Amino acid sequence: GQQLNQSPQSMFIQEGEDVSMNCTSSSIFNTWLWYKQDPGEGPVLLIALYKAGELTSNGRLTAQFGITRKDSFLNISASIPSDVGIYFCAGQLGDRDDKIIFGKGTRLHILP
Amino acid sequence: DAGVTQSPTHLIKTRGQQVTLRCSPKSGHDTVSWYQQALGQGPQFIFQYYEEEERQRGNFPDRFSGHQFPNYSSELNVNALLLGDSALYLCASSSYLTGNTGELFFGEGSRLTVL
To answer: By the CB < 8 Å criterion, does A88 face chain B?
Structure first.
């Protein structure tokens, strides 16, 4: 089936550093999404991307929909302790009602 | 305004048993999707319900079944439980007509352990 490959699997950074993570697929997606999951919680949508090449920001977060429609990246600037968690890329192959497929996640750890 | 609520939060079953998990969607939402999240993995799509019908289904066996009620709440049933069914089961709601594409609102999940 369709797979989303996220990298890196985990990251250990210092507070204040910038973070970059990405997601690739062999399939073309119509929608790219980035969700964050905190411990004991369900995922929460951070950014949604709907057009190839689109660059969207949400505070310190910036994400882009790759030109080939087969990849996306998420950047976090000036990381803070509450950024700790699991970041999932997700996407839809079909129209707005299509199921949403998730990657395996990038686990972000912030060193004291 | 209550978000997505799921019950029970935790449960333990033995192999071969059956389990029912429940979900109430966020107020104003009419579509419910169920996901299975194994430890250390991303959520895997099980199925989606809208207008009391299963609209889409992921790659899960028929042991997994569901239902949506007229008030939009939903149940997930799993029969003949296997050890591999141990996971966090997440319910997500959305609005079919008015929601933003791709925006799912998740509950905190039901943690199922099969012994």
So the answer is: yes
